Amino acid sequence: MLGISLVLGVISPLLMYVITNKKKINIFYRETSRKALNFHLTIFPFFLIRYFLPQDYGNFIYIVLAVELIFILNAMFRIGLNKPYTYPIAIPYIREKKETREKKTEDF
């Protein structure tokens, strides 16, 4: 489960962020992948903690998975409608680029 979380949760948003960052295409998808990466980097330590806990704490990981699944499905739905989504519990490890902030202020 730790490997699946790493591959699907961290590596795929990281790859999308790097690709959209290099090509300077569609700020919406770059920001979406940045937010998803921050969320998954916030959740990933819970999987690591569970890996080192005794088997008695097995329900802990299912609670984390359920919360993660709800947030991901909600994000997928909103992004599919081209609406911005911010994950409720995400530490901003990767900050927003300065040019993106300037673009947002120009829109108002």
Explain what you see.
The structure is a single chain. This protein has 108 residues and is mainly α. Helix content is 75%, strand content 0%. It is built from 4 helices and no strands. Helix 1 (2-23) packs antiparallel against helix 2. The longest helix has 26 residues, at 27-52. The chain is elongated.
Question: Rounded to an integer, what's the Rg over CA atoms?
Answer: 15 Å
Mean pLDDT across all residues, rounded? 78
Low-confidence stretches: none
Assign the structural class, choosing from mainly alpha, mainly beta, alpha/beta, alpha+beta, or little secondary structure.
mainly alpha
Shape: elongated
User: Approximately how much beta-strand content do the residues carry?
Assistant: under 5%
Instruction: Give the termini separation.
Output: 44 Å
Q: Helical element count? A: 4
Proportion of residues in helical segments:
over 70%
Keyword list:
mainly alpha; 0% strand; 75% helix
What's the arrangement of secondary structure elements?
Elements: H1 2-23, H2 27-52, H3 58-80, H4 98-107
Quick structural gist:
This protein has 108 residues and is mainly α.
